[in-house]
Design goal:
Blueprint: E1 8-14, E2 17-23, E3 31-36, E4 42-47, E5 53-57, E6 72-75, E7 81-84, E8 91-93, E9 112-116
Antiparallel strand pairs: 1-2, 1-9, 3-4, 4-5, 6-7, 7-8
Enzyme class: oxidoreductase
Protein name: Nitrite reductase (NADH) small subunit
Keywords: 2Fe-2S, Iron, Iron-sulfur, Metal-binding, Nitrate assimilation, Oxidoreductase
């Protein structure tokens, strides 16, 4: 009898459909990866310490650099998970995209789902 290994992949809702971005087991907790979406935009995909997956734009709105995937993950005292930009250290809520250091700034967030393949 042959056993088929089931893999789980991460998909983002980008544009009108879901786009596969990477296998779940390749994304380490506390780390992010940059992905190129079909329309040319870049997204940053993160796996937090609680094993939840988040996706935001990869562009830091303060510098214009595509670096958020390299940022440090953390959480506030009330449990909001954020990524801190590696350049100027602005923190962005991974659920809402809100900048925790400047309420007038937000980054796009993407819906995420896991799919077995």
């Amino acid at each position: 009898m042959t056993t088929v290994a089931v893999q789980t992949r991460i998909e983002l809702l980008a544009g009108r459909g879901w786009t596969a971005v990477c296998d779940l087991d390749l994304l380490l907790p506390g780390r992010g990866v940059a992905v190129l979406l079909p329309d040319g935009r870049q997204a940053a995909v993160f796996r937090d310490a609680r094993d939840r997956i988040h996706a935001t734009a990869n562009r830091d709105p303060f510098t214009g650099a595509y670096v958020l995937s390299r940022g440090l993950l953390g959480s506030t005292a009330d449990g909001r998970v954020y990524v801190a930009s590696p350049l100027l250290k602005h923190r962005f809520d991974l659920e809402t995209g809100e900048c925790l250091d400047d309420e007038s700034v937000r980054i796009p967030v993407y819906a995420v789902r896991l799919a077995e393949v």
